[in-house]
Amino acid sequence: MEFHVKDLSLADLGKNRIEWAEMDMPVLRKEIRKRFVEEKPLKGIRIGACLHVTTETANLMRTLKEGGAEVYLCASNPLSTQDDVAAALVKHYDIPVFAIKGEDEETYYMHIEEVLKRKPHITMDDGADLISTLHMKHQDLIPNVIGGTEETTTGVIRLKAMAKDGALRYPVIAVNEAMTKHLFDNRYGTGQSTIDGILRATNRLLSGSIFVVAGYGWCGRGVAMRARGMGAEVIVTEVDPIKAIEARMDGYRVMPMEKAAEKGDIFCTVTGNIHVIRKEHFERMKDGAIVCNSGHFNVEIDIPALESLAVEKRRVRPFVDEYKLSDGRRIYLLAEGRLVNLSAAEGHPASVMDMSFANQALSAEYIVKEGKNLEPNVYVVPEHIDKKVAELKLKALGIEIDQLTEEQIRYLNSWEMGT
């Protein structure tokens, strides 16, 4: 199989959209890709990527290829693929893609297998499905791998568990942990795109509604901030006492999901954990409650429990399934419990993904140079790369900042001077 996409005739539309996103990705386009074209730091390297197949990802793939790499791409979620983008990558950029929006689980993993057949030197994950499949089914390929990268919180959690168990066989850079990734991508990207997905799916007015956010990590902060900005009353549920205090100090109501379940009009999970909304919560929800997830996997909502409670199910709008309970109450699940921001909308805006994918590109370059010197473990993005991405973003935006004077540098490095 050379590639597997829905329809190559969509390629021209995809190309236009890729170019549109590229205009808002100056760090990747002007700073990194220009140097990669000249230096070819990835020459001879095969990169297997399991990422959301979007316009922004397309521009990362183009940059990696311009750097000399052979790039192979599959989807990291069955519903997040933009079929026109997948077609454009194949037809216009000669990058093999294995991804179709709405693919079933068997096809999803078949596509991962297609990427692994190319014997990648670097794995690039969003959720760790590529690396976990490699470790479980294709350990013979591990000696070929120099290292990998991981894009999202859920994937980093899985990889740290692998490292703790001694199962991780090569070094992985946790791109998600970069300051220029999670402070911006997770907060502003997830915040805006999640609300976008909910609105596209439902066309509901958020103003005046009660919006429940499960989890107050950087993604939860972003969703809560944007929901409040559109006039919703926001309730936050948490298990971490420090994050719960922070949410309260930020002006949100904080309570257990058991209590929030009775009050909410819209529920959104962003925890990275399993069964955050469960049977006992569905039983307390009001008629017409809308439930969705913006965490990586569709396990945050206990969908089998909702199925067991329902006496009738029907699709009332694209990406909206109505579950009618025995007492007549209706609960609406968006995007089958998968990432609502990528399933029902287009994911993060290009401007914020510019920094995230700049980290990906530079981390891949770092792995080529230093991967053989790293032990199998999960590593943060080197500080010099993180700061470089910030510097390049500021430069692209035309923003200047102060520099420390020699006197200030001496002061910060001394202990003699006091009051």
TrEMBL record:
Cell compartment(s), UniProt: Cytoplasm
Binding site for substrate: T54, D126, E151, K181, D185
Cofactor requirement: NAD(+)
Keywords: Cytoplasm, Hydrolase, NAD, One-carbon metabolism
Residues the entry annotates as binding NAD(+): 152-154, 186, 215-222, 238, 273, 294-296, 341, 348
Cofactor note: Binds 1 NAD(+) per subunit.
InterPro entries found in the cross-reference section: Adenosylhomocyst_ase-like_sf (IPR042172), Adenosylhomocysteinase-like (IPR000043), Ado_hCys_hydrolase_NAD-bd (IPR015878), NAD(P)-bd_dom_sf (IPR036291), S-Ado-L-homoCys_hydrolase_CS (IPR020082)
The protein's Enzyme Commission number: 3.13.2.1
GO MF entry, a single one: adenosylhomocysteinase activity
Domain of life, source organism: Bacteria
BP terms from Gene Ontology: L-homocysteine biosynthetic process; one-carbon metabolic process; S-adenosylmethionine cycle
GO cellular component terms given for this protein: cytosol
Domain S-adenosyl-L-homocysteine hydrolase NAD binding, first and last residues per copy: 186-347
Pathway where this protein functions: Amino-acid biosynthesis; L-homocysteine biosynthesis; L-homocysteine from S-adenosyl-L-homocysteine: step 1/1
Swiss-Prot/TrEMBL catalytic activity: S-adenosyl-L-homocysteine + H2O = L-homocysteine + adenosine
A UniProt-annotated Pfam family: AdoHcyase
Family (UniProt): Belongs to the adenosylhomocysteinase family.
NCBIfam families noted in UniProt: ahcY, PRK05476.2-3
Role description: May play a key role in the regulation of the intracellular concentration of adenosylhomocysteine.
Protein name (Swiss-Prot/TrEMBL): Adenosylhomocysteinase
Gene: ahcY
